[in-house]
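Box 3.1. Reading complex inputs
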Amino acid sequence: MADIDQNRHPFLDGLSKHRGSPPTVIVIFGASGDLTARKLVPAIYNLGYDNLLPADFRLVGFGRREIPDDAFRTMARDAVKEFSRRELNEDIWDKVGRSTFYTAGGYDDAAAFDRLKKRIEGLEKDLGRKLQSLFYISTPPSVFEPILQNLGRSGLAARHLGTRQMSKVVIEKPFGRDLESARRLNQVISGVFREDQVYRIDHYLGKETVQDLLVQRFANSIFEPLMNRRYVDCVQITVAEDIGVGSRGSYYEQSGATRDMIQNHTMQLLSLMAMEPPVSLDPESIRDEKVKLLKAVEPLNLSPEHGDVVRAQYADGLVSGQAVPGYTRESSVESESNTETYAALRVSINNWRWAGVPFYLRSGKRMARRVSEIAIIFKRPPGSLFSDSEQFHLAQNSLAFQIQPDEGSTVVLNAKIPGLETRTQPVRMHFRYSTTFGSNTPEAYERLVLDAMVGDSTLFIRGDETEASWKLITPLHEFWSSVGRRGMETYAGGSWGPLAAERLLWENGHEWRRP
Ligand code: BG6
């Protein structure tokens, strides 16, 4: 009997047979940065482990610091050791490590990009074949533009255009900081690359459970008929973290919860949850539906009285019994900071399916625990056969998709308590990924790096999608900058957010589900 590798996820056996990437060189801009060490290099290593890297594969780090190839290999190996979901296997690392190189240069230094081009041509010459170049921009956003311009000017962007080895570019978030800068960035990109060469990342789309949303919604006939204003009372999307801003204070001061989490990750969950069924699973059909949904979102009511938005900052508090400092006491944070670490939005979607159903979105740092979920709360049954009382303890039916941790879904039903009397109690039906499929699933970045290499853009954001979501969020920032700290709430670190966010739901007769 063949050995089963417990480290290998079953989905890979089907995958490797029909997905192949052309020979590829991945060039990471921002090679000594945090994301490279924590996510990108471990993702590449794990793809190597699963035999999903092309036979001819090269990795080139690019950054401002002078680092010899050998030293960069050691940095990459250390990153795998510290951050990979699997332990470092020397044989596998050996192959990836031998394919790893480094080129130093400034992002606005044209000569450095000419050197990079020569290096890629040299790698091709050694291998005796053409390589696809995948340029991964993982730098601070201030240098996105010079990198893109230099990729264009040096001819790197246009290498092997029209063939399987054509160049591609992956762009990390944040994609702009408002509608205007996102538009400007899209213009710069389209001046250099064709849209089918561009992969805008939102790593939430690489999460297994986010991809599963489409399957849950459209491969099961029991849920979809209920997903509309006739049966749904409200939808709640929570992306909560228990961590604070840690050492990222200076980044976060420029960003805040709406730019860091709501405009991208939370809006992606909203569009996948609420969009119409696409005509097919091809990338454009799915992205067309997401854009259509985002365009149907009504502008937010920003009025301080009964408006649609609550913002807040965490104050001192307790997380897992440990005292934690409030946001304005974190390092690199202004003591009078106007940056929100929590935001809750009430979103209305003006289409036939959802008109009148509030979608509540919330995201925050230093909340009670790390949890992301989408909960669909259904209307109560009509009539009063069973009405909530001491005898009949009833809950509204709900269907919750747990994105992380504890991935799965839960349905809440009312059931009769066994016995001679008729008494009821809410009960939960759970599906758990880990119980059914095991827990060693690939990380989001593995999936996304692989998809970009094979040219599947389904899980990446199209230019018009980013603009549609900035269109909703930008007026909010303009309003906040005009009012300073007015309306900024606080919440204790380790809590579920400010009281004002509870009130936002009470106004409609709803309350937040405790995930
Ligand atoms: C990033 C944000 O995009 O997502 C971080 O910049 C946040 O602030 C992170 O912590 C959360 O990602 P995950 O995958 O841990 O939920």
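In summary: The pocket of 6-O-phosphono-beta-D-glucopyranose is lined by residues 241, 260 (CB under 6 Å).
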